C-alpha cells in the first residue's frame, strides 16, 4: 500500500507527464503548421510517449492501493520563437521532470517503499535518455545553423520519440 505522501507526489507526477504530453502536442501542431514535417512527427511521437508515461503512473498508483487523480492541465504555449526555442523549452521541461523523478526516488527511500523505488528506476533511465536525445538535437541544430532547417527537418524525419533517436 502506498503511503499518503507517495500517493500525493505520484499524483503530482501524473500532472507533470500529462502537461509534457500537451506541451509536445502544442510543439507538434506548431511545427505542423509551418510545414516542418520531420520536426512535427518527432514532437507527435514524443507526445504519445508522454501519454504512456502518464498512464504508467495512473495504473501504478491504483495497483498499489492508492487513488489516481486525473488533473486539469495548464494550457501550453501555442507559439515558439523558432525551432531551437522549441527544443530548448523541451530540454528545460525534461530537466524539471528529471528533478521531480529524483525527488520521488528520495521519498521512496525516506518511506522505505522499495517496491516503488524499484518501479520508478525505469523513469530514472528514461529521463537520462530523453535529456540526452533533446540535447543531441540541439547540438545538431547548432552545427547546421539557421539556414539549414530544411536539412535538419529531413534528418529528423524517420526518427521516432526521444528514446529512439540515439
Ligand atoms: Fe515523461 Fe519526458 O518525461
Describe what this molecule looks like in 3D.
The protein has 166 residues and is mainly α. It has one domain: Ferritin, core subunit, four-helix bundle (Ferritin), CATH 1.20.1260. Helix 1 runs antiparallel to helix 3 and helix 2 packs across helix 5. The chain is elongated. The protein starts with a helix and ends in a 10-residue tail after the last helix. The model has no long low-confidence stretch (mean pLDDT 93). The site of MU-OXO-diiron has 7 residues, from helix 1, helix 2 and helix 3.
Quick tags:
166 residues, mainly alpha, Ferritin, 75% helix, binds MU-OXO-diiron
In terms of topology, how is this protein built?
Layout: H1 4-33, H2 37-63, H3 83-110, H4 114-144, H5 149-156
Helix pairs in contact: 1-2, 1-3, 2-5, 3-4
The structure holds MU-OXO-diiron.
Helical residue percent?
over 70%
Number of helices: 5
Number of domains: 1
What fraction strand? under 5%
Question: What is the level-2 CATH architecture name?
Answer: Up-down Bundle
Uncertain regions spanning at least 5 consecutive residues: none
Query: Main sheet?
Result: none
| CATH topology annotation | Ferritin
* Cofactors and ligands: MU-OXO-diiron
Report mean pLDDT, rounded to a whole number.
93
Structural class: mainly alpha
Provide the succession of SSEs.
HHHHH
Radius of gyration, Cα only, in angstroms? 17 Å
Overall 3D geometry? elongated
- How many distinct beta strands? 0
CATH first level: Mainly Alpha
Task: State the distance separating the first and last CA atoms.
Answer: 37 Å
- CATH superfamily membership, which one? Ferritin, core subunit, four-helix bundle
